C-alpha cells in the first residue's frame, strides 16, 4: 500500500498595498502646498481680492462697455469706485480722527492708571468686590506691564506691516484694472490648462465660481455699508462714546463671516461697561438684536444664493483655513469654499443621484431609526422562532437515536425541513 505524495504547502497569503506611492506623493504634495500658501499668504490675499473685486465690478464695467472700449470701461469703473471711497473718507475722516484720539486718551497707558481706574470703578460698584479682589487687580496690572512691553517691541514690525498693506492695496488696484480691462486671455489661460476632455466641465465650474464670487463680493460690500451705518446710528442713539469708530469696526468685522461680527461687538461693550454697566447692557442687547436681524433678514436678502454655503460649513472653513493661514485664511474662507464646491459639483457629483430631503428629514426625526429597530426586532423574533424549531427537531432526533453530530457541528444552522443524514457505520 503506497501512501499518496504529500501535498505541496500552500503559499502564504500576502497583503499587497496598492497605490501606496501615489498616496504618499499626494500627501507630500498637500503638505508642500500648505507650506507654500502659508508663505505667500499676503500675495494670495491680494490676488484673491483682485479677482473678487473684478468679478464684483464686472456688471458695471459691462454697462459702460456698451458706450466705450472695454479698457476705458474698466478704468472708468475703478475711478468711480475710488472717487466714492475718497469722498466717503473725506466726510468720515475728521470725526474718525477725533474719536480715535479721544479713545486713545481714555485708554490707560500704564498699570498704575489701570489699577486706579479699576479701584475707582469698584468703589462705585461695590457689588463686584466679592468677585474682583485687590490681589487679582494687582496681578492683572503686572500682566499688563508685560503685555505692554511686548507690544512696544512690536511697533517697528507694525509700521512695516502698515507700509506693506498700502503697497499690497496699490498692487491689488492695478491687478483689478488689468483683470477688468482685458479678462479674455485670463479666462482662456485657465481653460487652456485643463485637459480637453474636462474642458466643458471646467467651463461650467468657472462660470459658477465667477458668478458666486461676484455676487458674494457685492453682497459683502453692501452688508458692510449697512452694518456700519446702522451700528453707528444705534451707538450714537445710545450715547456710546466713539460711536463712529465702533461702527466702522462692526463693518470691518463683516469681512470674516460668522466669527468677525461677534468679535467686533466685544470692544464697544467693554468700553461702555467701564463707564456705565447699565448702558453696556443696552449696547449688548442692541448688538445681539441687530445680529439676529442681519442673519435672518439682511444677509439672506442681500446675499441670496451668492455662496449657497451652509453656516456650519463656513464656520468649519474659518477654523481650518484660519488655523493654517491666519487672518488671511479666515477672510478667504468663502472664496475657497466657493471654488471647492464648484469643482466638487462639476467633477465629482456629475452622475451622483440627488438625495431627497425626505430622507434627511426621516433621519433627523428618528423615523429611520425607529424603522430599523422594528426590522431588527422582527428579525430577532424570526431567528428565535427558527432556533426553537431547530432545537425541537434536534431534540426529537436525539431521542430517536438519529442525531448526526458531524452534520450538526459542521453546519450549526441547517434547514429545518432537511432530513437527517443516516448514521454511517
UniProtKB/TrEMBL annotation:
<feature type="transmembrane region" description="Helical">
    <location>
        <begin position="43"/>
        <end position="61"/>
    </location>
</feature>
<feature type="transmembrane region" description="Helical">
    <location>
        <begin position="315"/>
        <end position="340"/>
    </location>
</feature>
<comment type="similarity">
    <text>Belongs to the autoinducer-2 exporter (AI-2E) (TC 2.A.86) family.</text>
</comment>
<feature type="transmembrane region" description="Helical">
    <location>
        <begin position="158"/>
        <end position="180"/>
    </location>
</feature>
<feature type="compositionally biased region" description="Basic and acidic residues">
    <location>
        <begin position="375"/>
        <end position="396"/>
    </location>
</feature>
<protein>
    <submittedName>
        <fullName>AI-2E family transporter</fullName>
    </submittedName>
</protein>
<keyword id="KW-1133">Transmembrane helix</keyword>
<feature type="transmembrane region" description="Helical">
    <location>
        <begin position="219"/>
        <end position="238"/>
    </location>
</feature>
<feature type="transmembrane region" description="Helical">
    <location>
        <begin position="244"/>
        <end position="273"/>
    </location>
</feature>
<keyword id="KW-0472">Membrane</keyword>
<dbReference type="InterPro" id="IPR002549">
    <property type="entry name" value="AI-2E-like"/>
</dbReference>
<dbReference type="Pfam" id="PF01594">
    <property type="entry name" value="AI-2E_transport"/>
</dbReference>
<feature type="transmembrane region" description="Helical">
    <location>
        <begin position="73"/>
        <end position="93"/>
    </location>
</feature>
<feature type="region of interest" description="Disordered">
    <location>
        <begin position="375"/>
        <end position="425"/>
    </location>
</feature>
<keyword id="KW-0812">Transmembrane</keyword>
<feature type="transmembrane region" description="Helical">
    <location>
        <begin position="17"/>
        <end position="37"/>
    </location>
</feature>
Amino acid at each position: 500500500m503506497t501512501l499518496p505524495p504529500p501535498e505541496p504547502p500552500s503559499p502564504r497569503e500576502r497583503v499587497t498595498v496598492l497605490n501606496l506611492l501615489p498616496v504618499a506623493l499626494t500627501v507630500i504634495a498637500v503638505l508642500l502646498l500648505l507650506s507654500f500658501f502659508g508663505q505667500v499668504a499676503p500675495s494670495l490675499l491680494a490676488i484673491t481680492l483682485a479677482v473678487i473685486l473684478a468679478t464684483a465690478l464686472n456688471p458695471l464695467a459691462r454697462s459702460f462697455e456698451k458706450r466705450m472700449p472695454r479698457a476705458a470701461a474698466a478704468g472708468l469703473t475703478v475711478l468711480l469706485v475710488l472717487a466714492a471711497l475718497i469722498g466717503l473718507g473725506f466726510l468720515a475722516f475728521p470725526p474718525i480722527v477725533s474719536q480715535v484720539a479721544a479713545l486713545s486718551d481714555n485708554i490707560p497707558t500704564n498699570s498704575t492708571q489701570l489699577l486706579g481706574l479699576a479701584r475707582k470703578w469698584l468703589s462705585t460698584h461695590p457689588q463686584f468686590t466679592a468677585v474682583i479682589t485687590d490681589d487679582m487687580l494687582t496681578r492683572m496690572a503686572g500682566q499688563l506691564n508685560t503685555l505692554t512691553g511686548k507690544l512696544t517691541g512690536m511697533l517697528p514690525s507694525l509700521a512695516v506691516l502698515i507700509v506693506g498693506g498700502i503697497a499690497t492695496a496699490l498692487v491689488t488696484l492695478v491687478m483689478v484694472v488689468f483683470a477688468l480691462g482685458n479678462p479674455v486671455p485670463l479666462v482662456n489661460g485657465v481653460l487652456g490648462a485643463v485637459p480637453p476632455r474636462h474642458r466643458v466641465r471646467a467651463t461650467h465650474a468657472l462660470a459658477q465660481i465667477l458668478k458666486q464670487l461676484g455676487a458674494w463680493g457685492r453682497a459683502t460690500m453692501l452688508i458692510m455699508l449697512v452694518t456700519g451705518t446702522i451700528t453707528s446710528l444705534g451707538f450714537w442713539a445710545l450715547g456710546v462714546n466713539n460711536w463712529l469708530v465702533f461702527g466702522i469696526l462692526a463693518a470691518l468685522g463683516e469681512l470674516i463671516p460668522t466669527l468677525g461680527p461677534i468679535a467686533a461687538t466685544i470692544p464697544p461693550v467693554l468700553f461702555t461697561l467701564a463707564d456705565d454697566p447699565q448702558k453696556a447692557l443696552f449696547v449688548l442687547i442692541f448688538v445681539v438684536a441687530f445680529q439676529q436681524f442681519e442673519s435672518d433678514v439682511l444677509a439672506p436678502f442681500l446675499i441670496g444664493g451668492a455662496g449657497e454655503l451652509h453656516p456650519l460649513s463656513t464656520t468649519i472653513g474659518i477654523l481650518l483655513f484660519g488655523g493654517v493661514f491666519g487672518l488671511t485664511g479666515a477672510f478667504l474662507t468663502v472664496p475657497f469654499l466657493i471654488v471647492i464646491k464648484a469643482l466638487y459639483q462639476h467633477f465629482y457629483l456629475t452622475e451622483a443621484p440627488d438625495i431627497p430631503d425626505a430622507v434627511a428629514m426621516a433621519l433627523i426625526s428618528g423615523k429611520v431609526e425607529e424603522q430599523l429597530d422594528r426590522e431588527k426586532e422582527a428579525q430577532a423574533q424570526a431567528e428565535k422562532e427558527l432556533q426553537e424549531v431547530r432545537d425541537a427537531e434536534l431534540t426529537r432526533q436525539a431521542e430517536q437515536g438519529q442525531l448526526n453530530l458531524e452534520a450538526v457541528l459542521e453546519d450549526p444552522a441547517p434547514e429545518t425541513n432537511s432530513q437527517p443524514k443516516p448514521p454511517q457505520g
